[in-house]
Amino acid sequence: MKPIRAIIADDEETLRAALRRKLEVQWPELEIVAEAGDGEQALRLLTDLRPEIAFLDITMPGLSGIEVAQQTAGTSLFVFVTAHDEYAVEAFESEAIDYLLKPVADDRLHKTVARLKTRLAAKTVPDLSAVLERLSLAVPKTPAHLQWIKAQQKDGVRLIAVKDVYFFRSTDKYTTVRTRDGEFLIRKPLKDLEQELDPGQFWRVHRAAIVNVRMISKVDRTIAGMRTIRFVNLPDTLAVSRAFAHLFKQM
Amino acid sequence: MAEPLFSIYQPFTARRLLRSIAANLVINTVIALIITAIGVGKGFTVTFIFSQCIGFSIFGANLAVLPFYRRLRRSGSQALLIVTAIIAGALVGTMLGALANGIDPLLFFRDRSDYFLQILIFALLFGFVISGMSIALALLSEEKVRRLELEKTAVEAELRLLQSQIEPHFLFNTLSNVLGLIDTDKDRARSMLESFTSFLRASLVASREKTVPLGQEMDTIRSYLDIFTVRMGTRLRYRIDIPDDIRQCRVPPLLLQPLVENAVKHGLEPSVGGGVISIIGERIPGRVRITVSDTGIGLHEKSAGTGVGLENVRKRLELLHGSAGTLVLEENEPTGVKVSIHIPYEANSGDHS
C-alpha cells in the first residue's frame, strides 16, 4: 500500500518540529515529506508533491494558510493550525473543517488523526472552496482605501496616517497635507487623492480642498450664507464653496 | 467642583442662566451695600437700583458678545471685545438706572455730570473686576475639563496597552514554543521561559509605576525581542544601543513596546527573509531621542494595522510631556520603517519608585 504523505507549513521552526514529533508518535505510518517556512514555499510543495495531507499555519509570511489552501483546493486534506485567530476559529467551529490550536494537545491531535484516517478511507477530498471563501472573508484583508501618505522631506520620507490628516489643500504644483504636527507637501494632486481616499470619511468641500469629516468640530454659517469648517484641536479653518454647501445642510 | 456660572465654550443652558441671574442679583446687592457703606451715593435704594441696572446690563453685554468671542483667535482681540462690552454695558446700565430712578437720562448727562461720572466710574470698576473674575474662573474650569479628558484618553490607552501585552496570539505562540523546545532543547526552553517571565513582570510593573529608568525599559524590550528571536530564528536580528548617560532617564513603562511590536509584526514577520530591528538612544541638548527602526517590508499606501499602537504611544507622550514629547514616523533606508521619539531628559522620578 502506498504510504500517506503530509507536509507541515509554519513560519516557526520549533513549532514545525514539535508537530512532526507528535505526529510520529501518534501516526507512525504517516510520512512527513517536507516542511515549509512561508506561504509561497507551502504552495510550491503542495503543487509539486501533491501530498494527501497538509498542516497549514494560518499566519505566515508571503501567503496565509487559507490563501494557500484556496489556490490548491481539491488536492489535499487540510488541517489548519493556529494560535488564536479569533476570526478563523469562529469560522472553523461553524464548519466541518479540521483545525488545531497551538499549543497542540495530544488528545486533540488524536481526534484529528482519526478523522483524517476516515476521510482518507472514503477516498474523497471534500470540496472546501465555499468554506475557504467564507474563511478568507473572515480574515482581515488589505484595506480598499489609502491608509498612508508619504511626504518627501529634506532628511527623509515622512509617513503620515491618513486618519490623522485634517485636510488636503491644493497649492500650485503641490498638495498640502495638514496634521497636528504641521503641514507637509506631496506631489499627488487632489483629484488623484479623491479617487483613493475613503469617500465616507473624506469629503471634497471646495475645488481646492478635501476634508476629513472625523476631524470637524463644527461648521459655522455666516449671515451671507458662507459655511466655514472648524476643527478639533486645530485653529485652522476651511471655507466650504457653494457647490459643496449641500453636504452640510441640516438633516 | 461646581459648574461655572459663566462658560465660554459650553452652551448656556436654562439652568445655568437662572443661576447666573441669581448670582448677579446677589453681587449687585453687595456692591450697592459697599458703595452705601463707604458713604457715596444718594442712599441705598437709589444706589441699589443703579447697581442692578448696571450689573445686568454688563452681564447682558457679555452674553451678547459671547458668540463673537468664540470666533476670535487672538487673545488681544478677545480682550478688546470684552472691554468694549463692559464699557457699553456700563453706559447703557447707567442710563437705565437713571430712568428707573425717575431721572431723565439726558438731563442727567448735562446737569449732574459729577454724579453721573461717579456712577460710571463705579460701574466700570466693578464691571471689570467681576467680569474679569468670572472669565478667569470659566477659563480655569474649562482647562480642567480639557485636562480631565486628556487623562481619560491616556488611561484608556494604558488599558489597551496592558491588554495588548497579554495578547492571546503572542501568549499561545510563546507557550507552544516553550512546550516544543522542552523535549529537544531544554536550555533554550528555559531561557525563553525566563524572557517571558521578565516580560510579564514588566507588564505588571507597568500597571503600577508612572515611569521607569530607560535602562530598565530596555531590559524589558530585550526580553520581548529574545522571545521572538527564538520563535523566528535567523529571520530576526536586533541591536540595542543605549549609552550609559541616558539609562537613568525616566520613561513611561512599556512606552517603546508597541513600536517594537509593530516592527516585528508589521515589518519582519510578514517578510520571508526577515530583517534587523535597531533601537538607538541619543542624548541631544535637553532631550533624549530614541529611534526604533526595522528593515522589514515597510508601509505601502494601503498597509493596515499599525495605527492603534502608534496612537497609544502618542497619547502617552502628550499626557506626560505635552508638546515636548514628539513622535515622528518615517521610511527607513533602504527599507522598513523608522520611528523617532523625543522626550525631555528627566533623571529623577516624580514618584517614589
What does this protein structure show overall?
- The complex is a heterodimer of chains A (251) and B (353).
- The termini of chain A are far apart.
- With 251 residues, chain A is of the alpha/beta class.
- Chain A folds into two domains: 5-138, Response regulator (Rossmann fold); 148-248, LytTr DNA-binding domain (OB fold (Dihydrolipoamide Acetyltransferase, E2P)).
- In chain A, 30% of the residues lie in helices and 32% in strands.
- Chain A has helices at residues 13-26, 39-49, 65-71, 86-94, 106-122, 129-138, 190-196; strands at residues 5-9, 31-36, 53-57, 77-82, 99-101, 148-153, 156-161, 167-171, 174-179, 182-186, 202-206, 209-212, 216-221, 227-231, 234-240.
- The radius of gyration of chain A is 27 Å and the shape is elongated.
- By secondary structure, chain B is of the alpha+beta class.
- Chain B has two domains: 14-151, no CATH class; 166-344, Heat Shock Protein 90, CATH 3.30.565.
- Chain B has helices at 14-37, 44-71, 75-100, 105-111, 113-165, 168-184, 186-206, 214-232, 257-268, 307-321; strands spanning 212-213, 236-241, 250-251, 275-284, 287-294, 326-331, 337-344.
- Chain B has a five-stranded mixed beta sheet, covered by helices on one side. Chain B has a two-stranded antiparallel ribbon with strand order 1-3.
- In chain B, helix 1 crosses helix 2, helix 2 (44-71) runs antiparallel to helix 3 and helix 7 packs antiparallel against helix 8.
- The two termini of chain B are 31 Å apart.
- The A-B interface holds A 11-15, 17-18, 21, 37-38, 40, 59, 61-62, 83-86, 101-104, 140, 142-150, 156-161, 163, 181, 196, 220, 235 and B 71, 73, 168-169, 171-173, 175-177, 179-181, 183-184, 230-233, 235, 269-272, 299-305, 307, 310, 326, 328-331, 333, 337-338.
